[in-house]
Each structure stands twice: as C-alpha cells, then as structure tokens.
C-alpha cells in the first residue's frame, strides 16, 4: 500500500499517488456482480408480494371512496366487477377490474345515465381475486354509509387477492356496517 505524500516532508516527485489498479477494480466489479445475482431472485419475490398488496389496497381505496361518496351524495353507491364498456359483469370476474358508481335506481347494476365515480383496470397476470358468495357481483352503500343489498338487507363480504408466487395473500373484508379493512392471510392454495 502506498502512503500518501506529506507536502512538508517529501518532495512531490518522490510521492506515489494512491488509487486502484485495473485488476483491483475488476475484482471489485466481479464481487458486486456475484452479490447482485444472489439478490435478484429475492427482489423478484419482494416485487410480486408488493404488487399483490398494492392490488388489494387499490380495492380497499375503491371501497372507501364508495362509502364516502354515498355519504356525501346521500345516495346509494355500488361497487361491481367490471365488464365491457364500463358495465357490471354478471359473471363476477373481479380480476377484470371493478367500478364504483351511483346506483340511482337501486338495481345493483350500472345502467346508462348512472354516474361512474371510478373505474379500475384489470389486475396483473398471475393475481387472482376470489370473493364470498354474498357479494359475488355487487356491493353497495346506502345514504348512511352502511352496506345494503338491493332488498335493503345488510351485506358483508371478503375479497381475496392471491398469487401463486406468494405464500401470503391479502384480503379486503367489509363488515355488516360496511366498514372495509385489509389484512394478510396465509395462502394454502390460490384458485
């Protein structure tokens, strides 16, 4: 190792400059490449977990928007699985996305003339969304911000977001009062 020059005690022409040789720089780059290749698979898994969580959080956000809009507008606001041309999907394919809309005629479906508040795109490939039978295609809030079916009875439901690449899924649970929450759950088998 070369020692730095002290200006007062040594002459400048006798000083050896410090630095890395080409060989030392190549060894450092090789070590960094090996470490990076070991970290890449872990980063891919972490990215998949965060993507799954962000989809569940997006759905939670839509539920909160629906509830707050029902209170603000003093009207029924629904959330449904998204079909073609911003209509509700009767087959309940929530992975295609979802709609938040003013259900002014209390039908449980978005019809022409009903205000579309929010439209979410399909979830990424590899992410599946399953839902309990009680809210298979539709969930709504009444003017008091409580969950309400078409007949006026309360609704409660769970939307589960999972991926085959993640051991943990995320679920959005709406209780009988309509308040949604998000929680992690262990994925035994992703449908």
Taking all residues together, what is the mean pLDDT?
A: 85
If helices are DSSP runs of H or I spanning 4 or more residues, what is the number of helices? Answer: 1
Give the CA-CA distance, first to last residue.
Answer: 62 Å
- Cα radius of gyration in angstroms: 28 Å
Number of domains: 1
**Strands ordered across the widest β-sheet:** 3-2-1-5
Helical proportion?
Answer: 25-40%
Strand content: 15-25%
CATH homologous superfamily classification: minor pseudopilin epsh domain
CATH architecture: 3-Layer(bab) Sandwich
Report the order of strands and helices: HEEEEEEEE
* CATH level 1 class label: Alpha Beta
Report low-confidence residues grouped into runs of 5 or more: none
CATH topology: minor pseudopilin epsh fold
Q: Outline the biggest β-sheet.
A: 4 strands, antiparallel
What is the SS-derived class? alpha+beta
What is the overall shape?
elongated
